[in-house]
Amino acid sequence: MARARPVTEDETVARAIGMIMAITPCSARDARLVLASAAAAAHVSEAELAAAMTAATEGVATPVHVERALRHAVECARSPESPAPAVPAPVAMRASRAGTEEVLIRFRACQARLAAEPGSEQARREMDDVTYTLCVLMGRSRAHEAVLVAQDRLATFT
Mind giving me the DSSP string for 36-82? Predict the structure, then answer.
C-alpha cells in the first residue's frame, strides 16, 4: 500500500488562498493579501494560518484568535474601498443582460469549483480570470462589490 505524499507548506498556502478566493470572493492577489493580513493580526505566519484553515476542513478546531483575524480580514476585503457612493459605469461600458448573466453564472460556477477544490491551480486561475472580467464589466475594483452590482443590474433590467 503506497503512502500518501506529505503536503508541502506551499501547497497548504495555495489551498488556503483558494479557500479565501471562494469565500470572499476575490482574486488570488487579494486572497494572498487577506491571508497576510489575517496572519499578521493573529500573530502567526501565513503558513501557520493556512495550516489552521486547511485543518478546519478536516474537523480540527481553529484557534479563536486565528478565526477572528481571518473573519476580520475577509470582511475588510468585502468592504468598499471608500465610503463614497458607488458611481455607475459609463453607459458605453454597460453590459447587456445576457452578458452580465453569463459572466455571473461563470463566476458562480468557478466559485463552486474552487470551494470544492481549493488546492487546484487551474480552479484558482479560472476564478482569477472570471473575477477580473466581472470587475471590469461592472466597473468595480473588488469582486464582492462587482457581484452585488451585477445582481442589482440583473434585478433591474427590463
Answer: HHHHHHHTS-HHHHHHHHHHHTTTPPPPHHHHHHHHHHHHHHHS-SS
- pLDDT, tens digit only, all 158 positions of the chain: 566 778 899 999 999 999 999 999 999 999 999 999 999 999 999 999 999 999 998 999 999 999 999 999 999 988 876 443 344 444 435 778 899 999 999 999 999 999 999 999 999 999 999 999 999 999 888 899 999 999 999 998 75
**Euclidean distance between CA atoms 49 and 46, whole angstroms:** 5
Helix axes 121-138, 143-156, angle to 10 degrees: 60
- Burial class, 56, CB count within 10 angstroms (exposed 0-12 / middle 13-18 / buried 19+): middle
Query: SS3 of 103, please?
Result: helix
Sequence-distant (6+) residues with CB within 8 A of 32 are 17
Rounded distance between C-alpha atoms, residue 83 and residue 80, angstroms: 7
